[in-house]
């Protein structure tokens, strides 16, 4: 679930070149319903096989396990065991506070896992007393694959501290375009509103679909939706996207999950060959991983 933190500044969405993303890091089974089969494409009369991609989503609870103990080594091991090409993370602290030792979790996880990283802050606050680094909290994408571009999009959000909050655009919807075996794939990491009232999540779905509509080629949306896939406010997702893991199992809470709120969704041109929820208490959520076959797509 999203932490109760206050946003005091807005980060403008900006296009970031892959080189910048890489530099930041180095300083460091059945197909689901509605997903169409991928047929080999043809190039010069020769059949080209679809591109394999393993994706995952994981709310890392700021590096704390179900026991509420901060242990980034444990978080890193849980992510490494997924053997994913691209992983969307939620609840990522970057110099946020005492709960995570003011650690830059995005950079540290990328360094330990030898992966590229793009961090998309939801909140970007002045440094805490006695510190020089800005306090940031948001989502991230880790990638073993080359990153072509990355962007922090705005979607509608609601203040967690105001006594009378008003929905307004705010950053924290990450998009990373990776090159997977010659094909370009758009991967998005999101964290939707946690409140019982579904109205903000419904607006967030519309906002995300607007972003996805601007992109061509295979798309994968992952994240903590704070609602189960059959929730009415998520209905508009299904059609433009398909639930890639309908049989993967519940994800929250980690020790004895009762609902599936961590989701992988794909564009209809993807085939899901395997999907599973992983039993680990390295966070208060369980991670989800899916193996995909995607049509070859280049600009």
How do the strands and helices of this protein lay out in sequence?
Elements: E1 15-17, H1 18-26, E2 41-43, E3 46-48, E4 51-59, H2 72-80, E5 86-94, H3 105-113, E6 116-125, E7 135-143, E8 147-157, E9 168-180, E10 183-191, H4 199-213, E11 219-224, E12 242-243, E13 262-266, E14 271-277, E15 288-294
Helix pairs in contact: 2-3
Describe what you observe in this structure.
With 299 residues, the chain is mostly beta strands. It has one domain (51-294): Endonuclease/exonuclease/phosphatase (Deoxyribonuclease I, Chain A, 4-Layer Sandwich). Helices cover 14% and strands 35% of the residues. The chain has four helices and 15 strands. The protein has helices at 18-26, 72-80, 105-113, 199-213, and strands at residues 15-17, 41-43, 46-48, 51-59, 86-94, 116-125, 135-143, 147-157, 168-180, 183-191, 219-224, 242-243, 262-266, 271-277, 288-294. The strands form three sheets. It has a seven-stranded mixed sheet with strand order 1-8-9-10-11-13-12. A six-stranded mixed sheet has the order 6-7-5-4-15-14. Helix 2 packs across helix 3. It is globular and about 65 Å long. The termini are far apart.
Quick structural overview:
The protein has a single domain, classed as Endonuclease/exonuclease/phosphatase (Deoxyribonuclease I, Chain A). The protein contains four helices and 15 strands.
